Amino acid sequence: MKIRLSFIFIFILITFILLVFFKSLFEDKSYVPKKINNKIENISIKEFHSDNNLQLKNLFDNEKYIIINIWASWCLPCRQEHQYITILSDTNNLKIIGLNYKDKKNNAQKFLNELGNPYDIILKDLDGTKSIFLGAYGVPETFIIDSELNILKKYIGPINSENVIEIKKLFK
Amino acid sequence: MIIKLPKLIFFLFFLTLVNFSNTFAEDSKVNEISKNLRCLICQGQSVYDSNSEFALSIKNLISSKLAAGDSEEDIYNFLKSKYGDWIIYEPGFNKFTLVLWILPLFLFIFGGLLIVRKVFINRSLK
């Protein structure tokens, strides 16, 4: 009786562990948080040139959606991505806001002089705290936001030509 | 003047000490909170341990939130709403983590029972 009880217990335990392992074989390894609040607070962020504080809701004139792109002159993938942001900026009805991340003003200005300025408005995040309100991990990152400040779509890392087509479709 | 000088030095020393301990207290609170946070872009490091831009930004945010009078709980909740439960090392108690919390307790009780049975049966056999 004693042996049988522990045998049953071990059997159940091993079956359970195997079941868990077997199930995890088919699970997606990438981490996608489930319970995320996609609404951004209406925080104010400094404008790049004037240092004036701008509230996020004031970025909208009549647009339903805007694009926020986090970039920095020291970030190599941003350099690579810049051509696609430029393509997007040529699209009608599309407002692109650049959020300059932990950058020196001179370097950021040089970057724009060299590669062009595709942004309608540029904001700056000197200590990286503003990007956390967007739920960003780093640079570059691109967000599509509606006028109620809900994040509709988020691209982590540099956007590519496929993303450009996708975004253009969304804004048609 | 000769008598006053040591007093002045003592006063300055005292002032530095108070200032130092204040800064230290605030820093230690930031450290305490950041030790409980997972650096999401680093492998196996806490926000406290990491010097990545992400971790530094989170540390800046914690200092500014503490200065604004937010509690530790507020900061955890804010970060959870932005990055999900994963950013906190200690998993919260909810239906997804039920097994995680219950299983060790269950194993502990069951194991204990096995040991107790074994000891008592051995004793009764003697």
Descriptive tags:
heterodimer; A: 172 residues; Glutaredoxin; 5 helices; 7 strands; B: 126 residues; mainly alpha; Helicase, Ruva Protein, domain 3; 2 domains
Secondary-structure map:
The complex is a heterodimer of chains A (about 170) and B (about 130).
Chain A: H1 2-25, E1 44-47, E2 53-55, E3 65-71, H2 76-89, E4 96-101, H3 105-115, E5 121-125, H4 129-133, E6 141-146, E7 151-156, H5 161-170
Parallel strand pairs in A: 3-4, 4-5
Antiparallel strand pairs in A: 1-2, 1-5, 3-6, 6-7
Helix pairs in contact in A: 2-5
Chain B: H1 4-35, H2 53-67, H3 72-83, H4 98-125
**What fold name stands as the CATH topology of chain A?**
Glutaredoxin
Largest sheet of chain A: 7 strands, mixed
CATH architecture of chain A: 3-Layer(aba) Sandwich
CATH class of the largest domain in chain B: Mainly Alpha
Order of helices and strands of chain A: HEEEHEHEHEEH
Rg of chain A, please?
Answer: 23 Å
How far is the first residue's CA from the last residue's CA of chain A?
A: 73 Å
What fold name stands as the CATH topology of the largest domain in chain B?
Helicase, Ruva Protein, domain 3
Mean pLDDT of chain B: 86
Provide a count of the helices of chain B. 4
The neighbouring-strand order within the major sheet of chain A is 2-1-5-4-3-6-7
Q: Report the CATH superfamily of the largest domain in chain B.
A: Cytochrome C biogenesis protein
Query: Which regions of chain A have little confidence, pLDDT < 50, spanning 5+ residues?
Result: none
Alpha carbon gyration radius of chain B: 25 Å
Average pLDDT of chain A: 90
Q: Helical region count of chain A?
A: 5
Q: What portion of the residues of chain B fall into strands of 2 or more residues?
A: under 5%
Q: How many individual β-strands of chain B?
A: 0
Overall, the morphology of chain B is elongated
Number of domains of chain A: 1
